[in-house]
Write a structure and sequence with these properties.
binds glutamine, 2 domains, transferase, binds 4'-deoxy-4'-aminopyridoxal-5'-phosphate, 15 helices, Methionine aminotransferase, aminotransferase, EC 2.6.1.88, 3-stranded antiparallel sheet, alpha/beta, Aspartate Aminotransferase, domain 2, Aspartate Aminotransferase, domain 1, single chain
């Protein structure tokens, strides 16, 4: 049997969470909260079930939810998207990303991807015959070298994937980055896939630079979001994609056949919950407190770090502790110390000798305390 994805194995998240269970380790690897969502949201799901929202939702998602999201996008980024034509509710951001790539990428199209990168972009590009063109961001600041991007753009460049706030590094793009991207792609047909699942997890007063703030970019962009990240419900697998009508028309052609529509009662509950903007505005402060608590606890350790600017991931270097490969070090940490993390090299196969781990701090204080005890003892 010839595999269409010969180089793809099981994702690191599955592997690490499984090992964490096996070794009864504290799990700061796969990104998910270990605390429950707001009981009000759970109550709304119960209401949705009682109110008999059990049948198929419309293909693009509940109209009321899309209206609410159009308003939210306009309030946040001052760009008007049409609920009818430009927003589609998806089975998590993962399906939105996969659908966006499959709707547009054809054999030999080049797609620029910044490394390290979240793991779902490249397999989808390759599955459709596209060629990922990699641009490295280097630790510890992980800045994008726009001159390098410029040198890699050519007539075959179909799409550029950006992700801010960024998984796994916890960095964010600045306005200047978006302006550079705009300048480099102005007057081209290059599409932007902007993965903004962590839009509300941004710290120290920074503003999220959505492509939606830049109309010249937005007219060629598909943006992906995730309620799993925003409302502490990663297991619900609901997100959405936003794009101008001409792009969304193509997106929906694929969406209708790879899922048709997604979970109806949850959409109903999310729409009700979104009526109170506090529910997402409060997230930055909520997670900033967790980041600061975690960092204060591990300050005395031998790990070196720059505080995450966004996401619920903190990266740290252990080069003062060991020069083992990060995959080996992470494995030993689970087996010998009872702490599961993600070795950052899995997001960048070409990475050389960087001793960096990713820690998820979307955890209860008690969990963070136990993890910090281990981290400071190494
Ligand atoms: N993009 C990034 C950067 C992510 O970290 C994740 C995973 N949480 C996703 C997309 C996928 O989101 P979802 O769980 O909604 O599919
Ligand atoms: N986005 C999550 C992370 O980065 C994991 C999602 C998944 O398991 N696919 O940890």
């Amino acid at each position: 049997l010839s595999s269409k994805l010969p180089n793809v194995g099981t994702t690191i998240f599955t592997k690490m969470s499984k090992l964490a269970q096996e070794y009864n380790a504290i799990n700061l690897s796969q990104g998910f909260p270990d605390f429950p969502p707001n009981p009000k949201l759970v109550e709304l799901v119960k209401q949705a079930l009682d109110n008999n929202h059990h049948q198929y939702a419309p293909l693009a998602g509940l109209g009321s939810l899309r209206e609410t999201l159009a308003e939210k996008l306009n309030n946040s980024y001052q760009l008007k998207y049409s609920a009818e034509h430009e927003i589609t509710i998806t089975a998590g951001a993962t399906q939105a990303i996969f659908t966006a790539i499959s709707a547009f990428i054809q054999p030999n199209d080049e797609v620029i991807v910044f490394k390290p990168a979240y793991d779902c972009y490249e397999p989808a590009i390759e599955l459709y015959g596209g060629k990922p063109v990699l641009v490295e961001m280097r630790a510890p600041e992980y800045k994008i070298d726009w001159q390098e991007v410029s040198a890699k753009i050519n007539a075959n460049t179909k799409m550029i994937v950006i992700n801010t706030p960024h998984n796994p590094t916890g960095t964010v793009l600045e306005k200047e980055d978006l302006l550079q991207l705009q300048q480099l792609t102005e007057n081209t047909n290059i599409l932007i896939l902007s993965d903004e699942v962590y839009e509300h997890l941004i710290y120290d007063g920074k503003e999220h630079q959505s492509v939606a703030r830049f109309p010249e970019l937005a007219k060629r962009s598909l943006i992906t979001y995730s309620f799993g990240k925003t409302f502490h419900v990663t297991g619900w697998k609901i997100g959405y994609c936003v794009a101008p009508k001409v792009l969304m028309k193509e997106f929906r052609k694929v969406h209708q056949y790879n899922v048709f529509c997604v979970n109806h009662p949850m959409q109903w509950a999310l729409n009700e919950y979104l009526q109170n903007p506090e529910h997402y505005i409060e997230l930055s402060a909520f997670y900033q407190e967790k980041r600061d608590f975690f960092l204060a606890q591990i300050k005395g350790s031998r790990f070196q770090f720059i505080p995450a600017q966004g996401t619920y991931f903190q990266t740290a270097s252990y080069k003062n502790i060991s020069n083992e490969k990060d995959t080996d070090f992470a494995l030993r940490l689970i087996k010998e110390k009872g702490l599961a993390t993600i070795p950052v090299s899995v997001f960048n196969k070409n990475q050389k000798d960087e001793q960096i781990l990713r820690f998820c701090f979307a955890k209860k204080k008690a969990t963070l305390l136990k993890a910090a005890e281990i981290i400071t003892s190494i």
